Amino acid sequence: MSTGLLSVDLDALVSNWRALDAMTQGETCAVVKADGYGLGAAKVGRALARAGVRRFFVAVAEEGAELRQALGPNVEICVFSGHMRGDTDMIGDMMLTPMCNTIGQLTRHLEALPEHPFGIQLDTGMNRLGLEIDEWASVAEIALSQNCRLVISHLACADAPDHPMNRQQLEQFHLMTDGISVPRSLAATGGILLGPEYHFDLTRPGVGLYGGMPFADARPVAHLDLPVVQIRDVAEGETVGYGNVWTAQRPSKIATVAAGYADGLQRVLSDRATLWHAGQPVPLVGRVSMDLITVDVTDLPDLPGSLSVLNADQTVDALADQAGTIGYEILTSLGPRYARRYSGG
What we know:
Layout: E1 5-9, H1 10-22, E2 27-28, E3 30-31, H2 33-37, H3 41-51, E4 55-58, H4 61-71, E5 76-79, H5 88-93, E6 96-100, H6 103-112, E7 118-121, H7 133-144, E8 148-152, H8 164-177, E9 184-185, H9 189-194, E10 202-203, E11 222-234, E12 239-240, E13 246-247, E14 252-258, E15 274-277, E16 280-285, E17 292-296, E18 306-310, H10 316-323, H11 327-332, E19 339-343
Parallel strand pairs: 1-19, 2-10, 3-4, 4-5, 5-6, 6-7, 7-8, 8-9
Antiparallel strand pairs: 1-11, 11-14, 11-18, 12-13, 14-17, 15-16, 16-17
Helix pairs in contact: 1-3, 3-4
């Protein structure tokens, strides 16, 4: 095959969810936005539903509709972007639960779908989505008297446990919600790891399910193997790839591998990423191009038919470190050209 193979370990995914669920006393949900963090929302969602997840979160209504078609009617699907103009029919027909972020969204929802469930998102200091404290005070009584399913907020710095923003947001969430009878949620993966006082009634793990930090004990879920298209001998002093940015310092064997920035291997990885073969690291040399990368395989004992970029030796966060980014971006950038193989779950 001339495309990479993205293997998704659904057993590892479920194991990660169960490990996070064991840390909490309330309901543990699952975030499957961005097509299940790049790994396939339908397959990921089915595996998690079989494991016991009954409430899922997506970013936008279109994602919710696709997930509903995959999972059927017996789970709740919450939409972080809320009730956007034009989404009313989709929200109603697909039984989605919008997290209303503004007074305008709440008004739209109550007028268009008066009996339909919804949630509220509050801004506790991140200044991204949600009602601020004065706005919430003006509509809380109305909202809580309707079919409000949950009230949530989102932590800005949960991946830094000692950051004072965590405590500040926790206190603000208490100030805005103590005394209500509707279930509350503040913690995603990082919030779960901050401890029980951040958990409230339900938690919403995302990246930790897929093997990403800050859940250091997560099992790797994504494995990516790339086919070698050609291997050539390069003499000392010859250059490889666009711009002549890499020059051989010795007689070298260079593998041309079928993947590039169109497949989620960012151009910033040029001349700095590591690939693997049978547990041995080999360096990416030269520039990452749209469809191809070049790798120095001189030190391998055998000529490889494929090289691995995500595996037990190199997690999504290890690759992200090489790119100067985060594991979230690596996962969600995995391109559509990869053949996908699912196991377990």
